[in-house]
Amino acid sequence: MDFSAVDLTEAQQAFRDEVRAFLEEHLSPAASGAQGAQGAHGASGEAEHFDEPFYLALGDRGWLMPRWRREDGGAELDDVRVRILEDELDRRDELAGTDRLGALSTTRLVWPAIEMFAEPGLRAELTPRVARGTARLTLGYSEPDGGSDIAGARTRAVRDGEEWVINGQKIFTTNAQHAQYTFLITRTDPDLPKHQGLTMFLVPLDTPGIEIQALPTIGDERTNIVYYSDVRIADRYRVGEVNNGWTVLHGPLDAEHYIGGETSKLNDISGGAGHMRWLRRAVQAAAGWARDPAQVSPGGGAPAAADRVFLAGLGRILVQIEAGLATPGPMGRIKGADVAITGCEQLIDLTGPAATLPAGADGAIDDGVIELAHRAVQVTATYGGTVEVFRTVIAQQYLGLPRPDYPGRKAFLPPVRPAVPAA
Fold first, then answer.
1. Alpha-carbon gap, residue 230 to 158, rounded angstroms
2. 113-256 sits in which CATH class?
3. 113-256 and 274-381 have identical folds
C-alpha cells in the first residue's frame, strides 16, 4: 500500500483553486458564522445544518455526482479531482463543525440500487434531478421495535391493482425533512420467511398519508419518525421484484458496512473517518484555548500549552485519531467511534470545567464546541448500524467465523460468504 503524498499537476492545482474560490463565494465568513458551532436551530429546537442553496450550487457544477457523465448532470472528474473536491468540502465542514450537505451520503448510497433495479422510466426521470440536487434520497429501514433487525420489518405494503397501499412507521429516517424520496423496506408477504417476504420502494415523501415527525438527538441534530397511513403509490415506484427486496437492499447495505470494492484508491480506508469529525474540531478548539495567555494549566501559572501533561494528553488523542484513520473498513468504523467517544472524554479531563460549558455560557471554549462534541459523538456507536452489528460483519465477512442461529438455539450455520482474503 502506497502512503506517499500525491503530487498535484498544474491542472489539478488549478482545479483545487477553482474549488476554493467556489467555496469562498458560496460560504462567506458571514454565512459560515451565522450558524456558529451548533448550527441554526429550527422551530423544534434541533440544529438545522443542511444548506440547500449550497447543495443546489454544487449540483449546478456537477459536483454532487462528480464522476457522472456530463450528459447525466455530473462533471466527469477523475479520482484525484474528486478527492480534492471532497477534501476541501470536508475541511470547510470541520472548521464550521457542521454538515451542510444533508442527504447527499444516503443519496449516493441508494443510487446504485436504483440504477440496477428501478423501472427505467423512473430511473431516467430521477437521474438529472439527483445530479442537480432537486431529488434527495433517504433511508427507510429501522422501525421503533426492530432495533438493528432490518429484515424484521413490519411496515406492510399491500398490492391494490396498479398501486400499493403502505401502512407502518420508520424511525431514525435522518434527513427526511430535506429529502424527496425514501428508500423503503416493506413486508409484502408475511407468510414467507422474513428475508423472503420483503419488497423495496422509492416512496415520494410528499405522498398523502405520510407524516414526518422530528426526533431531536443528544447531539443537537435531528432525525425523524415517519408514519405511513394508507399511503398509495404507483407500482412504478417499486424497486426490484416483489418479495425480492433483500437482494435489492444488499448493495446499499454492503456499501454502508464497507463490504466490497472501493470506488477509488484515494478514498479514506477507514469506515470511521467521519465519526471523528467532531473530535478533530474539539481538539482544534482545545489547542486554541491552550495558547491563550488568559488560560492557565490546572496547576496554575503558565498557559495550558506550556503544560507538558496537557500536551502529552493532546498528543495521545491525536495519535488515536491517526490510528482510527489508518484502520481499514468496518474495523475502522468501530475504531473511529471508540476514538471519538473516548477522545472527547479525555479532552474534557485535560481542559477542565470550561470544556463542559455549553454555547452561550461565559467562558465556554469556542462557544461550547467541546461540550457539544462530547454529546454529538455518543451516537457514533449507532450510526449506520451499531458497533455490535459491525463486529458481526467483521466476524463473518473478514474472519470467516460461523453465523449463530439466534435466538437461543446454540446451532451454528456456515458463513454467509467466504472470508475476505488478507491484503
1. 10
2. mainly beta
3. no
